[in-house]
Design brief:
By secondary structure, the chain is an alpha+beta fold. It is built from 10 helices and 10 strands. The chain has 2 domains: about 5-110, no CATH class; about 135-350, Alpha-Beta Plaits (2-Layer Sandwich). Its cofactor is Mn(2+); Mg(2+).
């Protein structure tokens, strides 16, 4: 028979060890009850073992059975808690995945609405809700490109399904223009917006540009060709747009022509709106670029004299148009950009632009 003092020591040790475990209070209560039962039975055995009519082996059997029942319920409780913990872990993992997917989806939406470098500003942890995003630039290229004869093409007659077919063609044109921006050469160009059949883009507002505060080197340490490389890329983009539209004309048997205006200078960029935030640029440079497009000639790219002096250093060819009246600016000397002596290289492939309907080069 187990000594009474020994059983007290064992139970005291077990209780001390059990209290250190983070276990449910019901399980602890069950353990205490089992201990008390064992003590009662053991004391009874110690006191009445000589005079008891119940043999000691039966009393020990009862003690073992009680302990086994207690351990069984304890094991069931541990298993139940382990399953709950496992299910909680799965639920937490699924919730984390859903949060990650939702965040990725939201980031994609913001990136589609705003340029990538602007989207990073709004998705950053340091952004305050009341903060207005704005940035001024000193050396920016601005382009307006319209399809003037699209308005003549658009009709809402039955043959065009109420104008839907016309919009489908316009969507295909704009989408092909957008796909040009995925080329490595045009990473420094940002699409600003489309207004009807007019496409607006700017260069020099992205971190890929060498100027406007994004370069680690000072402006005086940069050579002329480095400073205005983004403007040359914008001019190449305008030529690529003409090639793209010409290819679409061949496929759809249409005769759309672009009228493009380019300008360079300082602008103010920012995001306006709460429900549908919109990234836009403002300034005299934008107004003159718009006038270069509206006063231009279909099939041509019109630039001001300052822009002409820069782009000719990159191998672009021009024809002098002469002075034209620009609202709000008076007379400005303008040029038509006819092409490039060295064809632009994109992704390792030489792109030779074909420029239909151009004014003959008399220079």
């Amino acid at each position: 028979m187990i000594c009474c003092q020994s059983i007290y020591d064992y139970i005291l040790i077990l209780k001390c060890a059990f209290c250190q475990k983070r276990t449910n209070s019901l399980v602890k209560c069950l353990f205490d009850i089992n201990c008390e039962i064992i003590l009662i039975i053991n004391n009874a055995v110690c006191v009445f073992s000589r005079n008891s009519v119940v043999p000691t082996k039966y009393l020990m059997t009862v003690m073992i059975i009680v302990m086994m029942i207690g351990l069984y319920y304890f094991a069931r409780h541990v298993e139940r808690q382990a399953r709950k913990l496992f299910l909680w872990k799965i639920e937490v993992h699924d919730q984390k995945e859903r949060v990650y997917e939702m965040r990725t989806y939201n980031e994609a939406l913001v990136t589609n609405m705003l340029p990538e470098h602007v989207a990073r500003h709004f998705l950053g942890s340091k952004k305050r809700d009341e903060e207005l995003y704005s940035q001024s630039y000193d050396e920016i290229g601005v382009m307006f490109a319209s399809i003037p004869n699209f308005s003549d093409f658009y009709t809402e007659e039955g043959i065009n399904n109420g104008g839907i077919e016309c919009l489908r063609i316009l969507n295909e044109i704009i989408s092909d223009f957008d796909s040009l921006l995925d080329r490595t050469q045009f990473l420094c160009i940002t699409k600003i917006k489309t207004i009807g059949s007019t496409y607006m883009a700017a260069s020099g507002v992205t971190p890929e540009s060498n100027t406007n505060g994004y370069s680690d080197r000072k402006e005086e340490d940069q050579c002329f060709l480095e400073r205005w490389q983004h403007l040359a890329d914008l001019a190449d983009f305008a030529l690529a747009m003409k090639v793209t539209l010409n290819n679409l004309n061949k496929q759809s048997f249409n005769s759309f022509m672009l009228r493009i205006g380019l300008n360079m200078g300082g602008v103010l960029a920012g995001v306006i709106g709460a429900r549908k935030p919109h990234y836009d640029i403002w300034g005299n440079t934008v107004n003159v670029a718009s006038r270069m497009e509206s006063t231009g000639v279909m099939g041509n790219i019109q630039v001001v004299e300052d822009c002409y002096k820069i782009l000719r250093e990159y191998g672009f060819r021009f024809v002098r148009r002469g002075p034209i009246f620009v609202k709000g600016k008076g007379e400005l000397l303008t040029y038509f950009m006819k092409g490039k002596d060295s064809p632009p290289v994109t992704n390792g492939k030489t792109v030779i632009p074909t420029l239909p309907n151009q004014i003959p080069d008399k220079s």
